[in-house]
Amino acid sequence: xxxxxxxPKGLIRESYQIDGIALPExxxxxxxxxxxxxxxxxTQAAIDALLAHYGADFPDHxxxxxxxxxxxxxxxxxxxxxxxxxxxx
Length: 89
Description:
Elements: H1 11-15, H2 23-36, H3 43-54, H4 62-71
Helix pairs in contact: 2-4, 3-4
């Protein structure tokens, strides 16, 4: 499978080759990867393809954990407080 369309700089591929890499470093690499994708890219499809390729061979790798976390769709943030939610006299 040619993953160059999903990982053009090879950042995810390289992260799996670094001995002793930890979760914080994988998160940083993931952020760099996400920011380097073209704007029109389908990020979810890229994450799914990368996890399908690497996750089977490296299920316990910290990058696999980061990719699984990336599969969770974030909902729009909701306002939870501030001066408008406080009672007024």
